[in-house]
Design goal:
There is one protein chain. The chain is of the alpha/beta class. It has 17 helices and eleven strands. 43% of the residues lie in helices and 14% in strands. The strands form two sheets. It has a nine-stranded mixed β-sheet, sandwiched between helices. A two-stranded antiparallel ribbon has the order 7-8.
Length: 506
């Protein structure tokens, strides 16, 4: 006979996996909502308490309380004066809002197109005695992220290139006058209406200046406040915006036109030094003309309102100062030299810049996490990974200077951005190349042409420049921008984008 076995105690049921059962994304969103609205939540019990108290107070009690205060005509007069004085002080001391009414971009003619096959053929004909330089140029161009429709000035299409002062002037007139004409047509602005004019061009600075050339062409007023900025690099457009902002704060009921461009004719390098050949593969024609205003009447028709401009200059550091420079090689040929540590220096400048931008734009939830991370690394464990704030909570769109594929890749990685958030930068580099300081505006126009810009959206423009500088511009969209209404360089090709860009094979 089989003996019965004693019954064994059953194992307790396993505890649920809370990490699986709780959506951590929702927890994070709840934390952000709680912290960002902390003041509102803290006022709720006070409001409830006051409401309950007022419900139990009769009108007679309120009237008795008012009579007990014994106000006189002197009290009323003083209170009225205080209210008027405070309101006047507030209205006149706060900064004037700066509006971006509209902007126009230069679209190069098809005759200036420089496809990959033509670029390679020119390189073989010009540098036929230096096969290593040819191989380097071809390899860089293949990995650059540039497409087949970027454009270079006519002088660079000659074999060999024929850069001279006359052709540089002709390029300047083509690019600058085309952008200005487009701005006048788009905004209805008359040349006589311009109060402030700022032009930035880093590498071509003739006498009379390019600013004087524009004043002469359009017969601008004799009392116009004009500025010609040179040598400021690819971030010069935001420097010009900052200058215009300061001037518009001083002069009420005024407008300012900022023109950003780069003239390439005299800066085509024909030597063999690799660090100086790189700009030949990246820089292309481009220009942007921007109309800013502090006039109240322009508020409704303006596209954007300027929120912040933050400038960082690391020129006190020798490596930063020399990492991008115009100089002559051993054979006396002049070009732009990009040092090998450029990306590390750009990363350092970006870190300094976002340290200033962060407190101005980030929500309280991100600022608290960043502060806790900083305190933990300082006092608990210095090996803790630093917390990178989520700038996607502060901005809806990102315009990263299309300086090259490596620049966009590095910022995408540093700021943890998605492919869609860097799409405007990559597609601008593909279609127009590195247009220097004007590239930010081609990117902004790409976003508009895609119909993605809505009222209330925030835009972050980030640019780097020689010196070394990192500058940021923050804009808030003033009205929803319809894609069909946009007329610009993207109008005839936006339907083709985004395009797939082949990954770099190392």
């Amino acid at each position: 006979m089989q003996l019965p076995f004693p019954s064994l105690p059953m194992a307790p049921p396993p505890l649920p996996d809370f990490l699986q059962s709780i959506n951590l994304k929702h927890v994070k969103l709840g934390y952000q909502y709680l912290v960002n609205n902390f003041i509102i939540f803290s006022l709720i019990p006070i409001i409830i308490s006051l409401s309950i108290k007022s419900m139990h107070t009769t009108p007679e009690q309120l009237f008795q309380l008012y009579n007990s205060m014994q106000f006189t005509s002197i009290h009323y007069t003083f209170s009225l004066f205080l209210i008027i004085y405070t309101s006047t002080l507030f209205l006149f001391s706060r900064p004037r809002p700066i509006y971006l009414v509209d902007y126009a971009l230069f679209k190069p003619p098809p005759s200036c197109r420089i496809p990959f096959a033509g670029f390679t053929e020119h390189a073989n004909l010009i540098l036929h005695e230096h096969p290593k330089s040819i191989n380097f140029i071809v390899k860089i161009f293949q990995r650059s992220g540039l497409g087949e429709e970027t454009c270079a000035p006519p002088a660079m299409h000659c074999i060999p290139p024929t850069p001279n002062w006359k052709l540089a002037r002709e390029e300047a007139e083509l690019v600058i006058f085309s952008a200005m004409d487009a701005l006048f047509l788009k905004t209805g602005l008359k040349p006589s209406d311009i109060d402030i004019f700022i032009l930035n061009c880093s590498l071509f600075s003739p006498t009379p200046s390019l600013t004087a050339m524009v004043i002469n062409k359009y017969k601008l007023r004799s009392n116009i406040k004009s500025f010609n900025l040179s040598g400021m690099g690819c971030s010069a457009s935001l420097i010009s915006i900052d200058l215009a902002k300061d001037l518009l704060q001083q002069y009420p009921n005024s407008n300012a036109v900022v023109l950003s461009t780069e003239i390439l004719t005299l800066n085509s390098y024909t030597g063999t030094e690799r660090a100086m050949l790189l700009p030949n593969c990246l820089f292309r024609m481009g220009a942007a003309a921007i109309l800013l205003s502090n006039r109240w009447v322009d508020r409704r028709r303006a596209k954007y309102r300027l929120v912040h401009v933050v400038r960082t200059h690391n020129g006190a550091d020798d490596k930063s100062y020399r990492c991008v420079s115009q100089e002559a090689d051993s054979e006396g040929k002049v070009g732009i030299k990009l040092n090998i540590d450029l990306m590390a220096i750009a990363g350092k400048a970006l870190k300094s810049n976002i340290t200033t931008v962060g407190p101005l734009v980030l929500p309280a939830s991100e600022q608290i996490l960043f502060a806790l991370s900083l305190i933990g690394r300082k006092f608990i464990n210095s090996k803790w990974k630093p917390y990178i704030p989520d700038f996607k909570q502060a901005f809806d769109h990102f315009c990263i200077h299309a300086g090259g594929r490596a620049v966009i890749d590095e910022l995408q990685k540093s700021l943890d951005l998605s492919e869609e958030q860097v799409e405007a930068s990559r597609m601008t580099l593909h279609r127009f190349g590195n247009t220097s300081s004007s590239s930010l505006w081609y990117e902004l126009n790409y976003i508009e042409s895609k119909g993605r810009m809505k009222r209330g959206d925030r835009v972050w423009q980030i640019a780097f420049g020689s010196g070394f500088k990192c500058n940021s511009g923050v804009w808030k969209c003033n009205r929803t921008i319809k894609a069909a209404a946009e007329v610009g360089p993207w109008a005839d090709c936006i339907h083709k984008y985004p395009v797939h860009i082949t990954e770099v094979v190392k």
